[in-house]
Structures are given as C-alpha cells and as structure tokens.
Write a structure and sequence with these properties.
579 residues; alpha/beta; Gyrase A, domain 2; 20 helices; globular; RNA-binding
Amino acid sequence: MKAFVSQALQGALQQLHAQGSIPGIPATLELDRPKQVEHGHLASNVALLLAKAVGRKPRDIANDIVAALPASEWIARTEIAGPGFINFFLQPAAFHAVIHRVRTEKERFGANRNGAGQRLQLEFVSANPTGPLHVGHGRGAAYGASLANILRFNGFDIFCEYYVNDAGRQMDILAASVYLRYLEAAGALPWAFPENSYRGDYVREIAAHLREQVGDRLQHAAAGLPNLPEMSDGDIAIDTLIAHLKQSLGENYRTLHSAGLDEILADIRDDLEDFDVRYERWYSERSLMDTGAVDAAVAALEKAGHCYTLEGALWFRATAFDDDKDRVLRRDNGAYTYFASDVAYHAEKFARGFTHVIDMWGADHHGYVPRVKAALRALGLDDQQLEVVLVQFAILYRGTEKVSMSTRAGEFVTLRELREEVGNDAARFFYVLRRADQHLDFDLELAKKHSEENPVFYIQYAHARVYSLLRQAAEKGLSLPSADGVDLTILQESREIALADALWRFPEVVVTAARDREPHQIAFYLRELAAAFHTYYNSTRILVEETPLRHARLTLCLAVAQAIANGLRLLGVRAPEQM
RNA sequence: GCGCCUGUAGCUCAACCGGAUAGAGCAACGGCCUUCUAAGCCGUAGGUUACAGGUUCGAUUCCUGUCAGGCGCACCA
C-alpha cells in the first residue's frame, strides 16, 4: 500500500524533473505515517526538501507535485498542510486490500526477502560455563533469540552461536571448587571452604555426582594440599591449588575438569532450550586451542609485523589500530590470553564466509570492542563487518533492595528460577520491552506482582478473544466466513479502517525492528494493535445476524489474530486461543 | 583523568537513523458489565525532553560545553 503511494509520488516527481521544474529527486525523501490521523494516512516532506534547491516556497512546489500525481483508485485525496507537507488520504479499498493480504499470507504475513542471500552470524549469551545462567544472561538470551527470529523473517540466513569459554582459568577454578566440595562430602576437607572459589549449591551437586562416578579414587590429591586459608592472597592461593591438583591428579584432572563443565553446560543448554532459545552451534574455545587456530592467528599477527615482545610476554600493537593501549596475546608464562583465542575465533568467523557478524555482549565488555576490531584490521579483514551490540545490564531488585549477583557466592537468582516464577511468556516479553542500550531494572517483586496484570496478557487476551468469537459463533449456529468470497467492502466504520491501518503497519515494523536491531519495536507494536482491537471489540458487535457483515467483521478479527500470532512468535511468546 | 552508554509525565519506558500539537503502560481521579471473556473499554489530570549554547524552514533526535547516573580502562574471563 505504501509502495503504491510511493510509486505514484515518484511518478509525479519524475514528470516534474523531466519538465525541468525540479533539479532531481531527493534521496532522503520520506513517506511516513503522520502522528495524527488528521494529517492523513501517509505524508511526505519532499516539497520541504526541494524548496532550497528550487528557490520557491515549499507549498507552491507541493501544489505542482499534487497536480502531477496520477489518478488512483486507492488515493482518496491529498492535502497540502503546514509548511508544505503533502498528506495522502486513502480509500477504504486500500485497507480492505491489507486484510485480504493477511488472510492470503497467513503465518508469512509481515515477512519479506530484504536479507535474501545474506549469511549472518549471531553470537549471544556465551556465558562462562561456571554456573547456571542468571537473570542477566536471560536478557541476552531473549534479545538474541528474538533478533534472530526477526532477521529470519526479513529473509536473512541466520546462524546462531554460543561461544563456550571452556579453556580458561575460570574453568580451572571451577574444577578446584568441585574438588574441594568433593573432599568435603567425604569429610576429608581439612579447613573451611575458601571465599574466592565457586560456592553455589550446584557445585555441591556436581561434586556429589563426581563421587558417584569415581568414588574415593581422587581423594589421594588431598595429601599435600596447600593450606589455602593461611595464604593472604586469594588469587595466588587458588592458582597454587590448581597447580597442585593438576600435578597430583595427572590424567584424572581432566575427569574433574569435565565433571563441572559437562554438567553445567548441559544445564545451560536445557535452560535455553526450555526458554525457546536455540543455537546452530556451540563453539568450543578449547577447540580453537586444540586445532592450532590460536597459534595460527597469533602467528598471522606476528607475520604482519604487529607484535612485539616485552618482559617475556607477546604484545599486539593495538594502538596502531586506534585502540587505547597495546594488548597481551601470550603471557610470560606461555599461556594465551582470552584475547588471543577471541582473535582466532573472530578470524575463524570471517573465514566461514558470513557476510556479517553480530556479537551481543554485556555492556561491561564495551572496552573490548576496539581491540577486537583492531585485531581484525591488523589481519587485513574488514572490521565493518563485525557489529557489536552492547546489552546493558539487568540490575536485580527485590523491592528497593539491590540483589547481589555474584556467581561465586552463589547468591544470584537463576534464569530458571525467574522463568518458573513469572513464566516463559512474561519473561521473554519483559526482557525485550526495552532497548538494548537501556539499563533494565528487574524488580523481582514487581515481576511477580505483574504476572497477573502483565502487558503480555493484554496482547494474548486480544488473540484469545478472536478465537472466543469463533467458539461463540459455533455455539449459536452462526456460519463462519470462508477463505474467499467475503465482501470486505462493507467495512466502512472508522474503527474498522483504523484496525486495518494498524495491521498494515506490521510489515513496516518488521523491517525497522531488524534494521535497528530492536525487538522492542515488535513488542510496542503488538500492544498498539491489541489496543486497537480491544477498542473495536468494545464498540462494535462482531457476531451480528446479517451474514455478510458478520463474515466481513470476523475476517478482520481473524486477520488481527494472525498478525498478533506472527508478532508474538517473533518474540518467542505463545498466542493462546483460550485464556 | 580517559572512553562507552544513559538523562523525556510521580514510576517504568516510547517517539519510525531532523518533521506538524512529544506518546503509552503503571500509579491517581471519574464513568461503562440483563447482549460476543471487565485479564476489557471510555474519559480527566500529569511536560521548559537534565542545563547552556550552536547548526536550519524545523531539534527529544545532529554538534560543543556543563551537570548527574551506570559501566569500563588486567599478562581475569
């Protein structure tokens, strides 16, 4: 419909251009919905843009443009308003066409092929597998999964990936923590559990499972165990413990390490699966080490002459590529930094042929963006193809009190707990109700309280009401509209036009939500569509005796239900037929 | 100190990558159920868009500065 008007406008402009009255057609020409209905269904600012170049008043130019518009069955009339806007008022037939389109396209209504041929990689969550996902990770999960759905609806080929940090020191700390709990369970822990290890209950469970698996076979490493509480520096204490375990357990250290990693990763997978968040691939950091990809990436940087050695460490000259300071790739102890494997990972993403790569990181990683981009450029890659979306933190509150979310202390609220408390639908919806760059205050008390008067129910209710109408019609023995042969031209009431107008916006919102990486646009749109429906429902009786009118109105309602279902599906929220 | 994000109604947030009179939800107040689900609808009230400049036909949006909040500035991940 918009394309139709746009075509007519372009035609008029081309005609004026051919006549020499305007120098060209502005590229920034807008054809948008005015905020107020009095300003028409569509409005263009083109005359305002041309005024300066032509040297005439905008309103005069607008007059010429309107005069040059071809006659049309869908444009009822035009109006020149304000400083020189051209307002278009459409015929009801244009809106009837939208309803027809929804019924034809069904679950594909709103979809487009804008992204056809583009392979896009989306990495999100990628939380360290050192514990269950907490509510902060939930935001990234909901956001990423929704964005993936929206991009797919726009025709992009999307590949979702979770980067598993299974190689770092944090994993060793987890292994050590599991071991201490393992000893504790056997009554063989000589002192109290240390502060800076992972202390959540899940560590006890992993230790218990390990014990079932290996019995007391690993207990021998307790001999010569360094006295952690006596050591003043906690980090050194942990590292000493890890070194001791690696040495005395030998091959069995791998068993210990895997016990934690496997169980937690399985838990994370289940959790996300239940949350309807799915990945094409879980990418192991360790695999980058094992295949030599990290060696290769670092070697490539060295070969390109962007590295130097200082005090035993290998540095990348990131400052040559606009970063604040140079970065260490390999420590003086010979171990690679996290940064080194991340360079390898990103180089590998590009090597796999994605046309565009989107990373979704927590906002606390923002300082990390310049150095990754610097490394990509140093490797001769186009850093423009890497887009980093920073998702601000979700700060947990219980009433007015901030809730600590230290994973080590085990005091956090897990994503699973949140889902069980407010439900998947509400959680998915709430998480994407704000832009990514907005801080999200997640008040647990409020989330619970809202579970009954939640905006998501408002939208679901609109959907369910339509199906309720169908059930009512069946009970009363009233016939339902068939797929075709419904005369929509009877729909002339302003609220019916307004409702169809709201429907027509869905395809546009799908485009801008993808373009701006903003799933919240879908959520806000759905609330407006639901509001338009509730208004209509309250003002107009749908199940009237006159069959043609009833069929036309039900067709409109079914179109609304279809659009709501399509929108909710993009956000991972169910569209129930009954509440 | 440097960098990134943010500042809009009492609260939580929108505002279509510069457009016309800045909009919703919640909270407050007043109405609507003998008829399709009141988990709903209708209405009232609420604003110097943090502040000061600048850019232009036009600024919540872009630029500069100030103030305030969050985050980051590791041979951690």
